[in-house]
Design brief:
Alpha-Beta Plaits, 406 residues, 4-stranded antiparallel sheet, alpha+beta
Length: 406
């Protein structure tokens, strides 16, 4: 398995919508992090799960054969990239981005995976352990530096995706593996929802180790959306006019060539208009996908919806050309730009009807939506509240971040 920038996606732009540190206390001094709880209790209004990242400190140690890497949770993604760009280990999941709000801890806290999610798993699957401080001021440690560790509760899985509401992370231990030497991306120019759904299904069932599959439809013609597709995907061998389906193959060049032949027969690619992006264009393409360049200039609401891949055709038929969106995870992940609160309610209800869940990532300036930002039922809400009370009984960490009730 390979961990890449689109596997553990913590793009600073996304994190900047979700986090918001008011000031920083250096995380490598855990006693300083403990002080956060005291300051918050005394009325300091700071939020403690996002902050300016550290450019000074990065990986504190590496494991045998560099199979694990221990990072300070507040370390800037670019710092990792500068340290590892000449190595063969794949740590580039934390590179890229111009904001300094993207951190290793934010990556774990959000648990947002990129395009490899359907193939190799999510962020939480690559966390071996962490250190941090809970709302009681206790320093806690979970997991370790080995892949097999079954001692006690696996708190790493609980903390990932908690959006900083349970623990202030100070150190995270991540599993890494060998980087793939090359990649190619095949573009199929097609827009029919039924055909796109079938292509997603063929990707999921293929034995040729396809590591990414996305669909980017036409942009809406409405003035409510700022055109950005041609800018986001400005590549020599990519026809930007019209909708397209894209999938990625990684490995050595000989392997890639053979697998492309097999896939061409599997998907009967001869009947479609196609193009092939080389390693350099392919790399730029997936960076644009995973940094959400399509929405980089939007002032509208941005929704992240996950549905069963079997429901992707119904979702596409509903969205049509009314909203700007694209589909990742081979049909399971929808990024949707939605203007207006009433439209959010309509989209959210449709996602729930298709057995999915939705998270509002970015809010517009006139956002007045009264419902919860996260889709959750009453039973899960009660469980989440109990967990929150256990880790942070005084409600010091990001109150109201996930649920307005606590």
């Amino acid at each position: 398995m390979s961990v890449n920038e689109d596997q553990l996606m913590a793009t600073p732009w996304i994190l900047s919508q979700l986090t918001g540190f008011d000031y920083m206390m250096h995380p490598w001094y855990r006693n300083n992090v403990k002080t956060m709880s005291y300051l918050r209790e005394k009325g300091n209004p700071g939020q403690y799960y996002g902050d300016k990242a550290s450019d000074t400190y990065g990986m504190s140690s590496g494991g045998p054969a560099l199979t694990i890497a221990i990072h300070h949770a507040f370390t800037h993604p670019n710092n990792f990239w500068m340290r590892w760009q000449n190595r063969t280990q794949d740590l580039t999941y934390l590179k890229d981005g111009k904001s300094n709000k993207g951190t290793a801890g934010g990556c774990v806290s959000c648990n947002f995976a990129g395009s490899r999610r359907f193939k190799v798993g999510s962020v939480r699957d690559f966390i071996l352990g962490f250190r941090g401080v809970n709302g009681k001021g206790d320093i806690i440690k979970s997991g370790g530096t080995v892949v097999k560790n079954v001692t006690g509760y696996d708190l790493s899985k609980l903390v990932s995706g908690s959006f900083g509401t349970l623990v202030a992370l100070t150190e995270v231990t991540l599993k890494i593996s060998a980087k793939k030497p090359s990649q190619n991306t095949i573009i199929i120019y097609e827009k029919d929802p039924k055909i796109i759904s079938d292509l997603f299904n063929m990707v999921l069932s293929s034995s040729n180790e396809i590591s990414g599959a996305v669909f980017v439809p036409d942009e809406p013609k409405s003035k409510k959306f700022t055109p950005n597709k041609s800018k986001a995907f400005k590549l020599n061998d990519l026809d930007q006019e019209g909708a397209f389906f894209a999938f990625r193959i990684e490995g050595d060049q000989n392997s890639i060539k053979e697998r492309i032949k097999d896939i061409s027969n599997e998907m009967n690619l001869k009947k479609y208009k196609t193009s092939n992006l080389d390693i350099y264009q392919s790399d730029l393409f997936w960076k644009s996908i995973n940094s959400l360049q399509l929405f980089s200039e939007t002032k509208n609401n941005l929704l992240r919806a996950v549905v069963p891949p079997s429901k992707s055709e119904k979702m596409m038929s509903f969205l049509k050309n009314k909203y700007r969106y694209f589909i990742d995870w081979s049909g399971a992940l929808f990024w949707i730009e939605v203007p207006g609160d009433q439209n959010i309610k309509e989209v959210k209800n449709t996602i729930i009807q298709n057995n999915g869940y939705v998270t509002i990532i970015k809010k517009s300036e006139d956002f007045e939506f009264t419902e919860k930002l996260f889709t959750i039922d009453d039973t899960k809400l009660m469980i989440s509240k109990k967990i929150k009370e256990s880790f942070d009984p005084r409600g010091l960490f990001n109150p109201g971040k996930m649920y307005k009730d606590f």
